[in-house]
Amino acid sequence: MLETGGHGRQDMFARRAVGPLCLLIAILLAPAATAGKVKVKTYETDLSTTFAAAKGSKIELENLLGSIEVLPQPKGRDVRIRAHVTCEAVEATEAKRLAEQVQLARKDEDGTVKWSVTFPDARLFRMPKTGVGSMYSRWLAPLVKRKTISTRYEGRAVEVGNARGATALQVTVKIEVPMDLSLSVIQHVGTVEASGVRGNVALQVKQGELHAGRLFGDLRVITEGASARVWSFNGDTLSVETGSGPIELLEIRSDRVRIDSARGAVNGNKIDSTHLEASTGSGKLLLEGLEPESMTISSDAGDVELATELKRTKEGTIRSATGNVTVRLGTFASFTLEANSPDGAVKGSGVNVEVDQFEKNAASLVRGNGGASLSVESQSGQILIRPL
Questions:
Q1: Domain chopping of the chain, boundaries
Q2: Comparing 80-84, 246-250, 368-372, which segment has the lowest mean pLDDT?
Q3: How far is Cα 271 from Cα 72, in angstroms, rounded to an integer?
Q4: How deeply is 197 buried, as exposed, middle or buried, from its count of CB atoms within 10 A (0-12, 13-18, 19+)?
Q5: Are 59 and 51 in contact (CB under 8 A)?
Q6: Average of pLDDT values for 371-385?
Q7: Contact by Cβ (8 Å): 65, 187
Q8: What are the φ and ψ backbone dihedral angles of 49, each rounded to 5 degrees?
Q9: pTM of the predicted structure, to 2 decimals
Q10: Residues pairing with 305 in the sheet
Q11: Rounded CA gap, 356 and 209, in Å?
Q12: Structure confidence by residue, pLDDT tens digits, 286-331
């Protein structure tokens, strides 16, 4: 069942105070031709739909500009989607006309229930000034002011930015899902937040931010220029991929963890896994509190730094083609370590070992019996072995 309803701008902000900084951002967002000259009119409306979903059902939700929040459905097997639409225009009737073109559209395809937020048939969009106090608007405001974001939505090429004459419209969506679903969320420009959900979950943001915490099951995160933050995850598989956005991971327990960033930095803390694979193109890789059984950590041009007690680790490969590599090891951990940097240097600082063979470009370190077997490599960077 689909319901719609309109209401004024005042209701939305009765519970939210907008500070001076947010007001300044709102002014900057207005197109140059109209800023300070024409007072725009705002129209807001709500959409909602509810449907039943059995365990294992596949659901997809896609939105162009705004945000998607994923929440658990505490009772029953119903999925509930609520959308809040905000539109601005010079004339109130035009704002209302554009906002009412937004719908929640359903399509069943190949066993998947696909929902999308339909936007007006336009090519250029911008964020309305209304809502600058929201979490996503605070970071999105400077982003869309300094660059134009291109994407494909509903079969056509569109741009989000601050262009003159752009349609000012955003949709914030909340989806409540029962446990043990297969859920895919795609936000083109904006934020995705997910918490308290169990199942097979895929979250994607092209430009913006992504936050996921207290999730259980399998999680796949994909961003292009967006940052990704995942915390308190407990499940079988975690995969995080970004193009240029940074990755932050905290308190991860998973059988397999895969991290891949083309140009963004990676920062991880307290990652407990059977197998860890992490790589960057040019961003720095900093991983602390690692306890994997096996790990493969690499960067093409970025620096790599990791810290581990080696409580569970049996084997590991740590390398950077041209960047520096720093390895910090637990005081009592047993290990065998081979380090090699043909065109760089290998150094040790304060490491208590039983076999200590250092040369300018290579080193062999042994402590205790058995333990982890580690290979540390850099073609031209410096390798530094230190205690925790």
A1: 2-176, 246-387
A2: 368-372
A3: 25
A4: buried
A5: no
A6: 96
A7: no
A8: -150, 150
A9: 0.86
A10: 286, 326
A11: 46
A12: 999 999 999 999 999 999 999 999 999 999 999 999 999 999 999 8
